């Protein structure tokens, strides 16, 4: 079966920054945060290279859940923080 999205969107990047207070690069994706829940589900928010528009992607268990485009990086970061806050309220915790 053919994937529903391009394979480069779902590739895992090891050694990437885990917090968005680090440098956002234009040559590679930047992982803003990683969370997990008691059921062992994992979630992460990623800014994809390029822009504008700046693409914010959310992955759950290594599968693309959704991707959203924003005119500014500040809006994308605000949205990522909003989703993170919601997940933390629902019992998710930050991965160490």
How would you portray this structure in words?
- The chain has one domain.
- A hairpin with a 2-residue loop joins strand 3 and strand 4.
- Helix content is 18%, strand content 31%.
- A five-stranded antiparallel sheet has the order 4-3-2-1-5, covered by helices on one side.
- The chain has one helix at 73-89; strands spanning 30-36, 42-47, 54-60, 63-70, 93-94.
- The radius of gyration is 13 Å and the shape is globular.
- It has one helix and five strands.
- By secondary structure, the chain is α+β, with helices and mostly antiparallel strands.
Low-pLDDT segments:
1-22
Query: Order of strands across the widest beta sheet?
Result: 4-3-2-1-5
Compute the number of strand runs. 5
Question: How many domains?
Answer: 1
Kindly state the percentage of residues in helix: 10-25%
Described by the principal axes of the CA atoms, the overall outline is globular
Element order, helices and strands? EEEEHE
What's the average pLDDT? 78
Radius of gyration: 13 Å
Biggest sheet character:
5 strands, antiparallel
Keywords:
96 residues; disordered N terminus; 5 strands; 1 helix; alpha+beta; five-stranded antiparallel sheet; single chain; 31% strand
What is the gist of this entry?
By secondary structure, this protein is α+β, with helices and mostly antiparallel strands. 18% of the residues lie in helices and 31% in strands.
Write the topology of this structure:
Blueprint: E1 30-36, E2 42-47, E3 54-60, E4 63-70, H1 73-89, E5 93-94
Antiparallel strand pairs: 1-2, 1-5, 2-3, 3-4
